[in-house]
Amino acid sequence: MTGSLDDKEILNIAQTTLSKYKLCDHCLGRLYAKIETDLTNKKRGQLIRSYLKEIRKIEVENCWLCSGLFNEIPHFTDLITDSLKGYDFETFLIGSKVDEDIISREQELFDFAGSEYSEPIKTELNRELGKILEKKLKQEVDFKNPTIMVVIDTPFDIINLQISSLFIYGRYKKYKRGIPQTKWFCKICQGKGCKRCDYTGKLYDLSVEELIAKRFLEVTKGDGESFHGCGREDIDALMLGNGRPFVLEIKNPKIRKPDLSKMGNFINSTNENIIEISNLHFSDKAEVIRLKDAGFRKTYRIVFRGKKPINNEKLKKAAQSLRGKKISQLTPSRVAHRRANMVRERHIYNCNIESVNDAMATLTLEAESGTYIKELVSGDDGRTKPNISEMIGILCEVTELDVIEIKGE
Ligand SMILES: [Zn+2]
Ligand SMILES: [Zn+2]
Description:
409 residues; elongated; 6-stranded antiparallel beta sheet; Alpha-Beta Plaits; alpha+beta; binds zinc ion
């Protein structure tokens, strides 16, 4: 940045400006904020006035531009401090709204005096509030990733807090069938509650999401949550092995450091034989994105029934030929109403017979993320190719499907 405060041209313009507009030291100094940046605007204004031998001082309350705004800083810091009581946070950032009349006067001043070295009034206000609050709250301003963004509406004395979510990673196992991963709202009332859903708003009483989130919401005093699972199992499938990764997002929490091992113990002991969680750690939004994008391989235990007794040798051959094979699946008829109708190719990595007993058989199968397992067995009227029914020449249906391992991670 070129220019200095005692530059003749700059002083000339400042002189003309001051003869037209009564400006306080803040508002005068702010016109030259990008010169000698180690000064506050107030000091800079004082310095220019002394170079100009301008002894007439304009008090903040008489300033044509801010009309006293900078005198209210102690009041604003009190308001902000009060509004933050009870919240855990490490960093914060201040934003502000300023009266529209002030903004339009500022524009008029910039048009007259030039804005080459200037900064907007909000920038100064936010910075000055931030400096005082850093000392008062003993917390730091963070421009990139503040825990709490405080926006003060100065004409109305209204404080709005934007609190960043708290993210907790874990893995869950599900030991009971018939529990969906996430809340399922009643389709008729969309969650409001109606006769059909017995005024619960939900299709299922329990969900993995609610069983885990309930305690976290109590302890962190959050006002909402989102459950981000790394894929999902069917409602009637168990989730076993090392568990399924998830990230629980708590919205607007007051407490940000709950004791995770206590939380885990509490949730596990109150949900024995239903769910179990492990590997809890504090996480972030990036991990949610990673989990959502991750194509983790899964190993399933599949129990299915044939229309006729199943031949062990034929099934063995089918299992062998599925290993390392790519299958193609047209969107299954059961989900066609909510997914685009298209062919998806999926890898099958491994397939082993556990048992064959008359018309019943059990397989373990390791497949790429996103494989439709029920359709791989039934064939879904030829929509999945190849499929086990076709390979052994008997129409088969899955009766039990469990996820026994999620790889990667
Ligand atoms: Zn002013
Ligand atoms: Zn309903």
